[in-house]
Amino acid sequence: MSTTPSRVFAAKLVGLPIFDPQGDQVGKVRDLVVALRSEVSQPRVLGLVAEVFGRRRIFVPMTRVTNIDSGQVYTTGLLNMRRFEQRSTETLVIGQMLDRTVTIPSTGVVGTVYDVGMEQARNRDWVLSRVAVQEPARGFRRRGQTHVVEWRDVEGLTRREDAQGATHLIAALNEMRPADAANMIHELPFERRTAVVAALDDERLADVLEELPEEDQVEILEHLDSERAADILEEMSPDDAADLIADLPPDTAATLLNLMEPDEADDVRRLMSYAEHTAGAMMTPEPVILGPDATIADALAHVRNPDLTPALAALVYVCRQPLEAPTGKFLGVAHIQRLLREPPSTLVAGALDDSMDPLRPTASIEQVAAHLATYNLVAAPVVDDDGHLVGAVTVDDLLDHMLPENWRDLVLRPGDARPGHRRGVSRG
User: Fold this and answer.
1) Residue 69's CB: how many other CB atoms inside 10 A?
2) What are the residue boundaries of the CBS domain, all occurrences included (predicted)?
3) What would the pLDDT profile of 57-71 be if each residue is shown by its tens digit?
4) Within a domain: residue 153?
5) Residues 258 and 328 in one domain
6) Residues 269 and 337 in one domain
């Protein structure tokens, strides 16, 4: 480990890619596992929590780490693919130590932990050696003063808190993609998860909820007050909100729908009116819809919206007024590739593809899959019997419904481990 820096801070490790000796990426760092014994002796770092294929979390012992530099982590390539399960004697640095209230006795400073540094001891073990502490903000200062001190100079690190904050953990989660943040939240202890959910803003929580397993979605929503739960549902895409509401007790579902904005609730109710596993049930009612008098420049401006998924940004749906689903007469779609080849000032109606029959709301999952595959599409319009556009089905919607219900929490079968990766590696 001659090129490994002398000290590495945990927050900088999160998200770094993990490579095997051949240079192939095998995962990403999600946390550090340590054994806390006392506030005097430096805790030994047992290993990394790594996220590998299928969003599964595994344990990587520090004895398998050969190098850590500013942008990646290298391992011996011998990884145990068994799902990581935290033991009672172990502590997660990111998940459980950040935001812990501590005291620096020599100065009387009281603050919260926002990072922890580790380094190699003489016996080559990795240990936690530094603690980064932030004081509460005072006066007009947005952030309190920070201190980086020796592990032994801090008190309160081994004490579990009933009301531990989540400020710095939230900062780490906000750096992740929603799916990665959801995976970390899924693994948190109940009390810590509750604190995180309370601290996340509504839009971010909605993004994360869409990526969580159904049982987690329901549990989180049922522990929120009704007003906030309704606000979260409004921030979610209507199809995901409809799926979640359908999993709630009928009385709770009715209460939340009544608390939602009428337009948002109407979209959800309409989606819930379609039979399960049909195009109508899985579609989104909010694709990019424009009138025939819109220009190519208008269309390109709409698909540049960063909130659109790539699949939704691939097509523009051209309809007569009204331009909200259910729309006026559906005229056709314009593909993003065609739009990019046309002069910006020309009308989008001149770039229409009207050669494909649209899907009906009653189309089965198999019919939707066959339609997308036949025409090499990532999205397709859904039109009712009167020729009105009622939504669009995207390939990600389709996959969500075709995969097993618990696909987000699936583990790899023993035969699925990468060749050459060894099982049965202990915590060391």
Assistant:
1) 12
2) 352-410
3) 899 999 999 988 878
4) no
5) no
6) no
391: β partners: 382
Contact yes or no for 263/238 (Cβ under 8 A): no
Burial of 6 (0-12, 13-18, 19+ CB in 10 A): exposed
- Residues 258 and 245 sit within 8 Å (Cβ to Cβ): no
Contacts of 415 (CB under 8 A, 6+ apart): none
Phi, psi of 103 (to 5 degrees): -125, 140
Q: Under 8 Å CB-to-CB from 416, ≥6 apart: which residues?
A: 81
Please indicate, yes or no, whether residues 324 and 357 belong to a single structural domain of this protein. yes
Per the listing, tokens 């219900």 go with 405
* Residues 333 and 386 placed together within one structural domain of the fold: yes
Residues 264 and 294 in one domain: no
For residue 161, pLDDT beyond 80:
no
How far apart (Å, rounded) are the C-alpha atoms in residues 24 and 1? 19
**Nearest by Cα to 184 from 94, 79, 53, 73:** 94
- Please write the tens of the pLDDT for every residue from 99-155: 999 999 999 999 999 999 999 888 888 999 999 999 988 765 667 889 999 999 999
Range of the domain at 216: 201-273
Using DSSP bridges, classify how beta strands 289-290 and 315-319 pair: parallel, antiparallel or unpaired.
parallel
350: left (phi over 0), alpha (psi -120 to 50) or beta: alpha
If asked whether residues 351 and 390 sit together in one domain, one would say yes
Statement: the pTM of the whole predicted model exceeds 0.70: no
Instruction: In the chain, count H helices and then E strands.
Output: 15, 17
In a domain, 182, yes or no: no
> If you ran DSSP here, which 8-state letter would residue 182 be given?
H
Identify any residues that bridge with 127 across adjacent strands, giving them in sequence order.
44, 119
Instruction: Give the span between the Cα atoms of 264 and 303, in whole angstroms.
Output: 22
| DSSP letter (8 states) at residue 385 | T
